[in-house]
Amino acid sequence: MSMIHVRINGSEVADDVPPRLSLADFLRERRNLTGTHLGCEHGVCGACTVLVDGEPARSCLMLAVACDDRSVETIEGFAGDPVVAALRRTFHERHALQCGYCTPAMLITARDLILRKRAGSEREIRDGLAGNICRCTGYTNIVTAIAEAAQEIGKEAPNAQ
Amino acid sequence: MPNDQYGIGASLLRKEDARHLHGRGQFVADIKLSDTMDVAFLRSPHAHARIRSVSVPPGARGRVFTAADLPRIKPIRITSQATGAKAPAWPPLATDKARYVGEAIAVCVAPSRGEAEDLANSVAVEFEVLDAVVDAPRDMRGSRHLIHEQWGDNLYIERVVEGGDIDAAARAAEVTVTRQFRMQRQSGAPLEGRAVLACRDHRLDEVVVYSSTQTPHTLRVALGEFLDMEARRIRVVAPDVGGGFGPKARLYPEEVILAALALELDYPVRWVEDRGEHLLSAAHTRDHHYKVTAYADRQGRILGVDAEIVVDAGAYGLWPQGPYQEAAMAARNLPGPYTIANYRARHYTVATNKAPLGPYRGVGRPGACFAIERIVDEVARAVGRDPVAVRAENMVRSEEMPFTTVGGMRLDNGDYRESVRLCAELLDLPAIRARQQLGEPDGRLIGIGFAAFAEQTAHGAAEFVARGASIIPGFESCTARILPDGSVVLMVGIQSHGQGLETTLSQITAHELGIDPARISVRHGDTESTAFGFGTFASRSMVMSGGAVARVSRLLRDKLCRIGAHLLQCDPAQVRCAEGAVLGPQGSVSIAEIARVAHLRMDGLPPGVDPLLDATATYEPAIGTGVFSYATHGAVVAVDPETGFIELLDFAVAEDCGTMVNPMIVEGQIRGGVVQGIGTALYEEIPYDETGQPLAGTLADYLMPGAAELPAIKIGHLHTPAAATEYGMKGMGEGGAVAPPAAIANAVRDALAALGAPVGAEVNETPITPRRVLAAIRQAQTAAMSV
Q: ipTM of the predicted structure?
């Protein structure tokens, strides 16, 4: 067992974890943050995407012990985040989710695309979603929802990072 | 129509969204019960092997269970009334023999999944490996090893569907076209795999089984049967389900085993399938072989079709319907939307040493559509005419409907030919033809292809009886309850896992009662709170459950009006329900006030009216053979003849599903289905090697369509309400997945027509991978040189 200190959604957490525990299982089983979903557990489907030190990461491929002294953001966080708020609204308005299983990770990936200014065209958004599988929607409405949120965020803060 | 802002026809935004957008959905693996232990299965690494012994290390006793340790479990048995159907018993944990890679042999329990897997690895099984049966057409009559020895062959069933006189059609034909088609085995692959959590509730004397299932009520029936328990002692809950698409509409051995474990042990047990297990052991799908001959006249009018269909159904049949429906539906649907008069389809359902075949969006029809729609294109090419025209000319005309096809499907209404025209318009067919003339600067070849189908939906008792089904999912139910404050709860027997039925069913009640859908809750997926129903599959829930909701809402509306009229001191005939109230000639009374009277102030009730606002109704459509949605799909592709790589440039659907309750959700279902169909067409495949080893064990081998590979999907609507259903609704959940393989294959054929002239290259096998494209080009060029 290894003691780790992780900042999760802004709160400091200390836990003693087995070395082979994945970040996803740590979040889900130990912290009860079940909005992070597991679709393949080998890094292809993207359903487990979270932010580690602000960067999207596959929590199924990452070990909890590798997150010692780092910060993790899950879908349960992002309180007051304007990009996630815009995405939640456009996903709802554009019917960009069906079963909802891929949705939390889609939002986190989409937020990253918008902030990195990689959501300027349909082509860019589609390429940016290459690592997130949705089995229900066929993506058309997800792409539209992200484009609308990106446009809205761009208008509000044209020089934002 | 009243209440249009949120009733029938409104694209009301979904009630389901908020919880998922905040990560607060509740899937089985998200449910926390204290002291839960995780479960891992020891599965057969061999496709076909006798089990000589299972050795559990001494330290693992009480934590590893074989069939002998769980004697209450009975073998899963399916029954079929179909003549000649063979139905093997399936022990949920293998006893003497394993018949596919992934079949469960023992179950291991530990505090975490990792430890449970360690335990499974510590168990030693001695196998006697047998030859595997993996080639269905070759081995169906028997092979050196039989999968189910007592049968004498490897055939679940063989049947013939026929009509007219196929031999006369053959004699009359001016053109004869024969092709072989193959649709490979694939997975349904919902993003959430299967999952089961089971525990005992001692207070209620029941076992509670949470399962990621589309069919909670029939799962309870099955658990009762195979655990020999009364249904009153079983509660099944399907919470949020992360996609189903058919594979979760069947009973699995794991569900029986987890329930049995919960009965044995003092703690809850949980099994969360990983993706490897899903690709190995959840229901597979498709795996069709076709040989089709079409007889036509010189104009391309198809006189007759002669088909042989072999479906490789794997080692067992899944409860309740067994392995039979895939081939039978393919055979009956192969004539499609056409007036073909003479038909014969011999169909065979074959047992092999592969995972069991189950339903997946489209069931049987994507293969049938692939076969007939490719043949229609080849007939058109053989007579030198445009496939679009030949396709439309062979279709049933509106004025001929209802029309029973030679396959026995009663097509109720619609304008099939118009869907072909509209689809060609959506893709701007003339512009594509012009572009083809110009050629591409990068050397790629452009092709356009179409495929049409009629989709049987919401079929009732007549259809399932005709199939010889042991269970007849011919109705749905709803209990509606207006609570003392006037808010409404609808309790329904279907299960919604992405279809948005929490939203659309409340639209129906909103329409009937004039209540804001925000004041309506829909409960589904829990056998404790809902009346019996069959669940969500077969494009049935909106029509069947929506019909039940309509009926029960009217029962409540009548009672609201009686009480309301009494309170308004007028005749019930003078009032109506609207705007959250009962409106009379001189004033109104709110539904909340009526509900208060019905529960808390019964002194306000009219004489002879009982308290409570609570009713249950069932519904079966007026026609048991189903109502038919239909569509034409069109694809535009660019094929690189050097690499075989296909880019999908455009895709359009021109469809008619009758009255749309929520057009936004209808379009979402279409697009989602289409992309699954594109997966079948281009990417998804679980190959098996000759020893019966599956070769796609991860999502790196099993490719599902991603956003980057796809165009936006265009949709055009036609509107022909059904006569036999509430509001004219038709089901439409599956159709999106039916035609893309055929449309894309026809587009690829169009693109490759010039290669290896005069015949051209064609790919008649899905998925249409670059390797298969290159092989087809080579074959056509070799053939051209030898001419």
A: 0.98
